[in-house]
Amino acid sequence: MFLKRSTCILMFSMVATQLFAQQRPQYTQYIFNNYLLNPALSGTENYADIKVGHRSQWSGIENAPKTSFLSAHWSLGDDYLWGNPLSLPEKGDDPMSRSYLQNYTASPAHHGVGVMMVSDKAGPISRIDAGVSYAYHLRMSGTNNLSVGVYAGVSRIALDMKQITLENANDPALAGAVVSQFKPDLSMGVWYYGARFFAGISSQQILPQKLAFTSSADYSTGKSVPHFFLTSGYKLFVDEDISAIPSFMVKRVEGLPISFDLNLKLDYKNKIWIGGSYRKSDSFSAMAGINFKRFLNLTYAYDFTVSELNTVSNGSHEIVLGFQLNNVYQVFSGGRTWR
């Protein structure tokens, strides 16, 4: 790709805005790992919930966004709490069954912690976010909990000069380029949940930061802006073995149109599931997953692009591998009812 000097300067003046117009990475399977968006989920499970994922967005477009992540969160303390969202029934019983949920009780107050690392790259711009989270879970009633969480970390935002080729190798457009910068990062969230229902609100990038890849004051107006997420869903039983979980998400980012997602997951005995999602004016998605006993689960999603990018994009792929450490009960992966 050849850039004239004026084009290169324009890129520097807009690069921060472009980076965050793409904003934080978007995910298709966030509904099964809301911890990526809301730190209040830290410690919701009675085991260490670990997930490793990769997303290749807009396949077919050169230098399109690619995102990889590693997340883990767990409750503090060694005791298994009986009859609450941090526990499972007798060994071999299905914790997602209708009969178990009829006797569901809320968890006593407890603490949760977590860690997260996300790598995102689009063209010559890359970003790595890493940090830790903490949440406190309150018992609101016999069947509902409210948790409040915070995430604190650091972001490294970089520009790969090797991917920028100029007609004139000595062009001063790149003089004084800032190829790497570190910024503090802060997120907060609230999560309300019970046996079948969940709702949460969170904000990422709370701390506004100026961003620029040049030392010139004329092209240093880029900035990061907060992201707001509202999610909710409910679990319905078709029969004893099959459940349906409809959910939605509303995303608000300054300077961009509001994003709205609708999701539906159909689950069979908490062993295999299929699902679909629609993101307004952007994509339709097909999802599927399988749980391997008490330790491992694998999920995949494919996005069919419906925006104008569909003429050049072959869609997006996303795969997530999940591990459940210290899940002592012999049941198929016992994640929360609404996951």
Automatic annotation (TrEMBL):
Entry keyword set? Signal
Q: Output the InterPro entries linked to this UniProt entry.
A: PorP/SprF_Bacteroidetes
Pfam families from the UniProt entry: PorP_SprF
Q: What is this protein called?
A: Type IX secretion system membrane protein PorP/SprF
Statement: the UniProt record of this protein carries the keyword Signal:
yes
Residues spanning the signal sequence: 1-21
